[in-house]
Design brief:
The protein is of the alpha+beta class and about 140 residues long. It has 3 helices and 5 strands, in the order αβαββββα.
């Protein structure tokens, strides 16, 4: 058989969006696996987006694919931190900013509730003491 007899079919692919590196789509598989681990063992995990070779276009693409969920938490401590649930429950887009508002870290946290939003046992103990004082004054 000659090479001319082998059929060649050209498949046109949509052009890649400008600025995309191709590094964001594999994160979706990793997030899916982390969600399964969360369901199986209750173990949460985080992906530091700032440590990965992602372009601003990659981050925009990932943000659009994951979508927006129903819960948004804002914390004020040495700069603002936002913890936004994505359209995939259990997947949180976490952004930390410094005092000047510059982004210093972005993470995808896979958890039932982000660790940063959980009350620390010592804080709960202080809260209980304060409540007991209020009750004793009644």
């Amino acid at each position: 058989m000659s090479l001319e007899a082998i059929p060649i079919h050209v498949i046109a692919h949509a052009p890649a969006e400008p600025g995309l590196s191709g590094n964001a789509p594999p994160l979706l598989r990793e997030i899916s696996e982390l969600l399964q681990r969360l369901l199986d063992s209750g173990e949460s995990a985080a992906i530091d987006l700032s440590a990965l070779p992602l372009t601003p276009a990659d981050l925009d693409w990932l943000h659009a694919i994951l979508g927006a969920g129903e819960i948004a938490i804002t914390l004020q401590a040495s700069g603002e931190s936002t913890l936004n649930e994505t359209a995939c429950p259990g997947v949180w887009w976490v952004t930390h900013r410094n005092e000047n508002g510059a982004v210093i870290a972005q993470l995808i946290e896979v958890a039932f509730i982000p660790e940063l939003a959980k009350a620390h046992p010592q804080d709960v103990a202080i809260g209980r003491e304060q409540l007991e004082l209020l009750i004793s004054d009644l």
